[in-house]
Amino acid sequence: MADLLSTGVSGLLAFQRALDTTSHNISNVNTDGYSRQRVEIGTRPAQPYGNGWVGQGANVRTTQRVYDDFLAAQTRTSSSGLEHLDVYASNAERLNNMFGDSANGLSPTLQRFVNAFQAVANAPTSIPARQVLLSEANTLEQRLQFFNTRLDEIGNEINSRIKGEVAEVNSIAQGIARLNNEIASGIARTGGQPPNDLLDQRDKLLDELATKISVNAVRQDGGTINVFVGSGQPLVLGSNVNQLTTVQDPFDSSQLAVAVQTAGSSVDISASVTGGTLGGLLDFRREQLEPARNALGRFAVALTDVVNTQHHEGIDLSGALGGDFFAVGDAEVLDNNLNSGTGTVSATRVDVGALTGRDYLMEMTSGGWVLRDSLSGATVPMTGTGTAADPFVADGLEIEVGGTAAVGDTFLIRPTRSAITNMSVLISDPSRVAAAAPIRTAAAGTNSGSGTISAGEVLDSTNAQLRAPVTIQFLTANTYSINGAGSFAYTAGGNIDVNGWRMQISGAPQVGDTFTVSDNTSGTGDNRNALLLSDALKAPVLNGGTTSLGSAVGEFVGGIGVATRQAQVNRDAQNVVHEESLSAKEAVSGVNLDEEAANLLKYQQAYQAAAQLIRVADTMFQTLLAATDR
Amino acid sequence: MSQQSVLSKTQTQIASGKRVQTPADDPVAAVHILELQRALAESEQFATNADMAKNRLTLEEQALADANTLMQRVRELTIQGSNATVDPASRHMLAQEIRGHVKDLMDIANRRDANGEYLFSGYATLTQPFAVSGSAISYFGDQGNRALQIGQDQRVVDGHSGQDVFMGVTGGNGTFITTAGAANTGNGVIASGTIVDPSQWVVGDYTLRFTSATGDYQIVDASAAVVATGTYTSGSAISFRGVNINMSGMPAQNDTFSIARSRPEDMFTTLNDLANTLDAPTVTQADRARFSSDMATVLQQLDQVGDHLLSVRADVGTRLHTIEAAQDSLADRKVELESATSQLRDLDYAEAVSRMNQQLVGLQAAQASYSKIAQLSLFDYLR
């Protein structure tokens, strides 16, 4: 009977615990990261009697959370991936919106600039038309500056976000380490009983950490977990934390990289960070932002090259040869702050058509200098020996090396990055726009033959004799002299190249007919160079002479569009994956109120039944008392 | 949530009327749209250029028409004056009027456009092209031809240089020019002559010299070598090297006539020569013969001037026609580019509205089902 009472009490206590846990579940139905808990009730050891074993009731073995390690890890991975793609896509969308503006984008601004040259060609003497050209040039330059500054700003924002995320990662890591400690002592104190709510809290922190950076959590004996980031660098080891820090890029101090600080040293893990917001930011910077800045720079370099080259071949309203129209920044060489040698590297752009928009790493190896693509690490072939007289030549660059570099020293070459930062329009006086050609040709009015002379073109604007007068006189119908000297065979329509210019005489000139090529100083109404400029701006110059400036803009904007769309699609797909793994996890660990209601009812009934046992025991005892109370 | 964002995107599309909002919406179309818009801006510029060229050529055409009218008047005066019976005083009046026309012609040749640029000075548009220098009128412009771009690969020259219009008129009959020697004493009159067989003509300057009073002549070239001899009878033609020279009257011994290869002559010289010829004395028989020869030469030169002006005007007309054709095709191209852009970028409203309705239904269904499901709870039944 004493057994009946204690059996009943054991049931009461067990069901009380079960009801407690159910109400705990119900109360935490909306708690983030909470895993449903379950009471495991088992039988108490039975009592042996001669006629068999008699049960002694029930007790609570343990209270466990319903939790699936595999599903939790999967959710963590998928949320890490989702955050990565989300940050990537939302930043790509910013680029996309910035360059996609059809009214103020690069493409219409460039076209207005080309049209302005046409307008000058229409009225070369018109100062207003020239003024419009200069303002369009300034607009184009400012547009490029604007885009470049916005890209810089995005780069700075990424830096400060990286800083912020790193700080959060550190505080989360601290939290995990503290919980590791509490969990370990909790388990030890209760003889191996799991501190469910602490475990949930730690898992929640781990989930949060996974949204920042992809992590690898390894469970240890004693209930602690170790957390590794990057390519296996420990972030949390039991209750110890290694700080994540930001370090300056070894080449470019304006860029922050992520490193793990271990005793005495820090390891740059930027390249191996894959998921989470940090991964997204680093990948976006590497795959979208940097190439966008380089591509924009390459456009500016090509624009400057095209316009300057042709502008040099014309003369302005005052008759002076055209100077540079745009100025643009030079190729950049940054040395690694860890270099130990005294080597120097300098790079100059020589061929716009061969420029790629990539960055390069120049590395001193035991076998000499090697040029690599800074992103892929693939070797880029070079010709030449690297001296001033015979520089290395690769991808449109001439690279000159000096000093003595130590093996392992590296230099980062950025051919077009700072082009726009140092870009400006050099012409402010509208009359300095070189719309006219420097030479003019004429057939003498007394010529009796049918010979005609072409307008001529400039081959070499640096020829000192370019604008010196030249008279071509026909000695016979088939030979001519130049400035009274020599006798050259005449071919109708053949090129006659003198003093850096080229022209053709066609038809049938007669003996004594003269043709002159002279300085075009008074040619204020000449528009030949303006037309050539507008042609040059439409000519294919980039990618080995296959892509015009206009198509380069299209390619650039289209490339950003494609990348953005891809990022959006990836994000949407990852969203579905994440939703699925989340609901799979919820299905296991989530609190279902219906289930809890049923449990509540079940345990309540069981509790009532157990309470009845107490009454039965009491009744039995009273019966016994009454039977003996005589 | 995702239904809502899809719906809001459709809404933005309907509000703006654009299907492609950013390049990411349809990268291929976006790049194509950029290219189309670039082509559109370019062809608008070509249209502006074409208008400009048209205006300039129209101005030139007016100037040429005025020059033509003037030349016709001069021709009338010449025909009036070529009659040897007109008395010297009247001829002097005619000469004076013609000298006045030289000035008028120079004014036409020095015309400017609305920007103050000279129409006929080639590239040197700020240099006055024609001015009196010494006894003649000289050209100070150059031979530049300014072209304007009116199509992707189409350029049209927006004028002619003064050299082309006023200076380079073919002299004589285009092959040679005949003039009577100033010291001739006979009454032989030389006409302009014709080419019978161009293949036999050797370019050069020849002199026809009469070696007797009975019409024996020899023709020598520039180096005084005799290339032909013969005997002329009044009214017959003299033939040599594929050309026929018609003469009338009878030259005296040692009278000379030059048969020089054609050289371009400017209109001002032609008019001045005409005025001087009209002022020349016609007292002796020889004077009258020279007068007749000179008038014949001048009349022929006036014909050449008329032809020359016509050919320049025809050239202008052709260019204007080219421009109009280009303008038509530019207008067509604009419509074509705009409709292509619209097809790529603009929204199909019918499709978008029906899509929006569908999405609305989806969203409403989702909302309704959520509220129904949310009401289901076992706790409601445990009372």
Explain this structure:
The complex is a heterodimer of chains A (630) and B (383). The radius of gyration of chain A is 41 Å and the shape is elongated. Chain A is α+β, with helices and mostly antiparallel strands. Chain A has 10 helices and 32 strands. In chain A, a hairpin with a 2-residue loop joins strand 15 (360-365) and strand 16 (368-373). The model of chain A has no long low-confidence stretch (mean pLDDT 90). Chain B has 383 residues and is of the alpha+beta class. Chain B has helices spanning 2-16, 27-82, 88-109, 162-167, 267-279, 285-345, 349-375, 378-381; strands spanning 130-133, 136-139, 147-151, 154-157, 176-180, 189-190, 194-195, 206-210, 216-220, 226-231, 237-240, 243-248, 256-261. In chain B, the strands form 4 sheets. Chain B has a 5-stranded antiparallel β-sheet with strand order 5-13-8-9-10. In chain B, strands 6, 7, 11 and 12 form a 4-stranded antiparallel β-sheet that branches. In chain B, strands 1-2 form a two-stranded antiparallel sheet. The radius of gyration of chain B is 39 Å and the shape is rod-shaped. Chain B starts with a helix and ends with a helix. The mean pLDDT of chain B is 87. Classes of the chains: A alpha+beta (630), B alpha+beta (383). At the A-B interface, helix 2, helix 3, strand 22, helix 7 and helix 9 of A face helix 2 and strand 3 of B.
